[in-house]
Protein 1
Amino acid sequence: MSLPRFAVLLASLGFSALTLAASPAPLNPAPATKYPLTLDNCGVPLTFDKAPGKAVTIGQSATEILYSLGLADKLVGTSLWFNNVLPQFQEQNARVPRLADNDPSFEAVINKRPDLVAVQFEWMVGPQGVVGTRQQFSELKIPTYLMPSDCEGKDNLVGADGTRLRPFSVDSLYKTVDQLAQIFDVQARGAELTADLRSRLAKAQASVKDKQLKDASVLFWFSSADLQVDPYVAGRKGVPALMASTLGLRNIVESDEEWPTVGWETIAKANPTILVLARMDRRRFPADDFQKKLEFLKADPVTKNMDAVKHNRIVILDAQAMEATIRTFDGIEELANAVDHFDLHK
Amino acid sequence: MTAVFAGRLLRKISLHTAWVLAVLLAAIIAGIAIGETPISLSLVFQVLANKLWGAGFVLDPIDEGIVWNYRLTRALVAAACGAGLAISGVVLQSLLRNPLADPYLLGISAGASTGAVLVAIIGIGAGAISLSAGAFAGAVAAFALVALLARSTGAVSGSGQIILAGIAGSQLFNALTSFLITKSANSEQARGIMFWLLGNLSGVRWQSVTLAVPVVLIGLAVCLWHRRSLDAFMFGSDSAAALGVPVRRVQAILIATVALVTAVMVSLVGSIGFVGLVVPHAARLLVGVRHGRLIPVSALAGAIFLIAADVLSRTAIKGQVLPVGVITALIGAPVFAVILIKAKGGR
C-alpha cells in the first residue's frame, strides 16, 4: 500500500471514529446537517453546499438504502439491478426511471443532471470505472458517493471481485446509512434505521446463543461457471464471513478474495456443518439456479457424502443478502433461523 | 521369412508398449496422489483396489470419492488431452510444413470461445446448455468455416491457404467474442469465461473420460495409420504425391481428425496452450522426425506433461487452483529452452 493511500485510510478511520462519537444516541433528536458539509469518501473529499435535490444510483444496494431513508423522491435514476426491488419499495421504485438493468453509460447518468451519484461498487466508478471515473464526474461538478463497504479495507485491483485487506465490518453499512443521511439532511431517519438494524442483528445473535455451537462451520456457494467446475464461494473476509462469524459459525474458505474459486475436493474434505446456496434471478450459468446447485450436491459422488448434504442442513439465501446491502440483515436473520432449526449434533 | 519379421516387429512393439504404459501409469498415479488436500499413497492404492478388484477396504466415502471420481478422472482426461493436443500439433506441423502450426491454428480455440461466450453471456439455452456444448459447437462451426475458405481458395498443394484461412477464421471469431463481451457482459460474467478459457480441469468427471479417451485413441490410430504419408509430407505435398500418397484425401482425413480431437479437448477443458505447439518439437529433438516413433512419443510426452501441469496448478498456491494453461506455459517455456540448447550442443 502506498503511503498516501495509507494516510487516507488512517484519515478515514479517524473520521469514522469521529462520526461514531458524534452520532447521537437514537433517543435524542438528531441534529440538522450544517452545510457546507465536507466528508472524506474512499479517499475523495466531498463537499455539499446543500442537500442534493437529484440523485442517481449505480447499484441496487445504494438504491435500496436511499429508499430505506425515505429518499425515493430525490432519486432521478437507478441502475445495476441484480433482482427485483424489495417488496416494501415496489411502489416508490415504479416512479423512478431505470437507466439500465446493468451498468449505465456515463452520458445516461450525467444527462439526469444529478447532484449526487451513489455507487455500490468501485469497479463502476473507480480508476478503471466501467461507467466513468470519479474524476470524470467531479470535473462536471457531480460528486460521487462510493459505499465504504466496497473500498475501506478492500483492494479492488487484486482478484476478480476484489480482495479484502481487513474483514468486512457491519459498521461500514451503518456508516453508509449515517453518511447518506447526513448528506441528505435526514439524520433522524438515519439514526432510526441504524438503531433498527443494530437491534435486529443483536436479536439474531441472541437466538443462536442458546444452541452453544461448537466449531460449526459453513460454506457459502454463490455460483459456478459450469455445474461441476470449482465453484465461486465466499471468501473468509467478505460479507458472508461476517454473517457466519456473527452467528458463531466458521467459514471453511481460507482466501481473502471476495468470491474465490475453491475446489470441491477441498470443500468436501473440510466437510462444513452447513451449506448456504445463493438464490438469484440471474440465469447465465447453470449453477445460478439454486435447484441445479441442490441437484448437483445430491448427485455428485463426493458431495452427496458431505454431512450437510446427508442431513439436509442446506440454507437457500438471497444472493443480494451476501453483498453489503440492507438485505445483509435479512440474510443474518434467515441464517440464524435456519441454524435454530437444524440438529447440529448429527 | 515374413513370419519371422512379423514376430520380431510384434515383440518390438509390445516391448515399447509395455514401457510406455508403465510410464503413463506412474504419471497417472502421481496425478492421483498429489492434489489440493493431502491423501496418502496407500489410501490411493486401497481405493483403486476397492474399485478395480472389489478389495473391500473400509474407507471414508469422501476420500474414496475424491480419489476415484475427482482425481483419477482428472488425471485420465489430462493425459488424453495432452496426448491429443500433442499429436494434433505433430500432424499439423508436418502436413503444413510449418513449425509454428499448433492445433488452434484451424480456428478451433477462437470458435470455442465464441460458442462458450454465446452460452454464458448472451444466455443462449438459458442455462440448459453447458459451456462445453456451446464450445464444441463453436469449435466445429469455426473449423467448418476455415475448411470451406481454404477449399474455395483452391488449396491444391498449398499449406499456405490453410494457414491463412485459419488466421482469418480465428480473427473473425476472436472479434466476435470481444464484441459479445464488451457489448453485454459485466465483469462478473467475463470472469467466468476467462477462468474457463484459460484451461480448467476441475469440472472433469467420468463422462468426460468416456468421451476424451476413446477420441484420443481413435485420433492416435488414424495418425499412426498415416505415419508413412506424414513422413512423405515433410518433403512437401508434391513430393508426397510423387511417392504415391493420395494427397488431398490424406490431408482431408488428417485435418478433420485433428480438428475433431482438438474440438473435443477444448470443449472439455478449455484452450490449454503450449502443449500442441511445443511438445512435438521437444519430441522431435528426442527421437527424430520419423512419425512411426514421433507420434507415440509425442502422445506420451503430452500426456505426462499435462498431468504434471495439472498437479502443479492445484498445488502451487495453497487453497487456490491456477488455470492449467498458465502453468503449461510457465513450466513449458523454460523446459523447451533447455531442450533446444542441449540439442544444439549435441550436434
Protein 2
Amino acid sequence: MSSPVAARAGDRGLAVAGVLAVLVLAELIGRTGIAGVGWPPISEVALYLTESSAQQLLGRALAATGAAAAAGFLLGTVVALLVTALGALLPATAPGLDRLAAVLHAVPLIAVGPLLITIAGRDATPTLVAALASGFAVFIAATSALASTNPAQRDVFSVLGAGRLVTLLRLQLPAGVPLIVDGLTLAAPAAVLGAVIGEWFGARRGIGVLLVSSMQNLQVNQLWAAALTAAAVALLAYVVLVAARDVVNRRFS
Amino acid sequence: MPAQTSSTPAPAETATPTAISLQGIVKDFPLRRGTAVRALERLDLQIGHGEFVALLGPSGCGKSTVLRMVAGLEQPSEGEVAVEGRSPADLVRAHRLGVAFQEHALLPWASARDNVALPFRVAGRPVDRTRVDDLLALVGLTGFEDARPRQLSGGMRQRVAIARALALEPDVLLLDEPFGALDAVTRRRMNLELARIWMEQRITTLLVTHDVDEAVLLADRVVVMTGRPGRVRHVQQVDMPHPRGTEVTRDPDFHALVDRLTAMLDDPEPTAEPS
C-alpha cells in the first residue's frame, strides 16, 4: 500500500531537487559572470521581484497578457472544435480542413504577427496569435479524438440508425473528451506564448511589450523577471489543465 | 451432405412469412491489387417471424459477415438481403433492429440506465423510463440502474447490452457471439437467462456463435456453415420445447445433438463440393 505513495514522494523529491539544481546553476553562472552581463544571478532577479514598483509593472503586464491568452485560448478552442465538428459532419471536407490547418500552422507566428497588426489592429493581435497557437493543438487533438472511437460502439450506433450528428454528440464527443483535454493541456501554454508573441509587435501593454522594452533599455533584471513570469504563467496553465484532465479521465472512461 | 442441406422442412417456411431472407449471397473482401478473398459463396437462408436461428460455424467461416449484412453494416457482393421485405438500411433508418456484439460496446461514461435508454435518444424519441427499468429488471439488473459499466462484471455488461438491444422492441434481434468473452460458467448462466428473456419477447433472432451447446440450447434451428468460403452445410431443427432450462442440458438427446453438430464442425468438409 505504502510503496506507490513512497514512489510518488520520491518522484516529487527528485523533481524538487532538479529545479533546485537548475536554480543553483543559474545563480552560479550569474555570479561568475561567465555568460556576460545578460545573465544576472537569479537571486538578484528574485530581489527585483520584491520591489513594489516591479510588482506593479509586472502585474499590469501580466493582467494584459493573461486576458489576451485566456481570450485567445477560448477563441482558438471554440473555432477548432467547430471546424472539427464540421469535418465530422461533412466528411468530404475533412481532408481539406486538415490541410488548411497544417498550412496555417506552417506559417510562423512571427510572420503572422505583422499581418494581423495591419488587419486586426494592435489590440486584437495578441488574442488572435494566442488563438492561432492554441487552436491548432486543439484541432489536431480533436480530429484524432473523434476518429478514435471504438469500432464496436460505432457499429452499435450504425445499427441503431444514428445519423452523423447524433453519433458526434452522443458517441464521438464524449468518447473524445480525454484526448481533447490532452490537446487543451498543450494549447494553454501555447496560448500564453502566442499572446506574448502577439504583444511583441506593438501592443500597448503586456509581458511581450515589457520584454521588448527591457531588452532595448538593457534592464536585465526586468527582462528576466518578465521572461520568468511568462514561463510561470504558461506552466501554471498547464498544471491546472493536467489536474482537470485527471478529473475528466475518471468521468469519461 | 447435400441431402442434409435441404433437410429443412420447406412447407414450414412457406407457412411462416420470412422475416429475414438471404438469397445467393456472395461476399468478397478485396485484398491487395485486384485479389480478393471470398468469405461467402452463394449462401441462402430464410428466417421466419419469431424464429430463433443460430448460425454455427468454424471461425473465419463468414458467420459474423452474415450478421453484419443483415445489420446493414456490410453489403453483399452478389445476392440479396431482405429484412421484413425491405433492405436492412431501411430497417436501420426506422430503428427496427437490435444488436449485441461480443464486445459489449456500452458507453463507459453512462449509467446502465442511460445505456439502455440510448436507442430512444438515438431515435429522437422520449425515453420511456418504465420500459428501461423493466428491461433492466428483465435482465436481472434491478438495483444496478445507476452503475457505470466498469462497476459491472462482464456478464452484467452483456446483460445491459442485451437490454439495450431490446429497448425499442425491434423487429429483429441480432446477437454476434454476445457471450463469447465470458468464462464458461457465466456463459452457461447467461445462455439460460437469454432463453428465459427470449421466451418473454419472442423476437425474430439471429445468433452467431461457435459454441454448439449455446446454439442447441437457444435456437429453434441451428444452421451449420462450412469453412471459408462459407455456405450452409446443414440445417438442424431443434424440437425441444421452450423454455429450455438446466434440465434440457442433462437430456441425452441434447447431448447426442450437440455431439453430432460438433463432429460436423470438426470434420474438414469438402469445401469444393458443388452446390
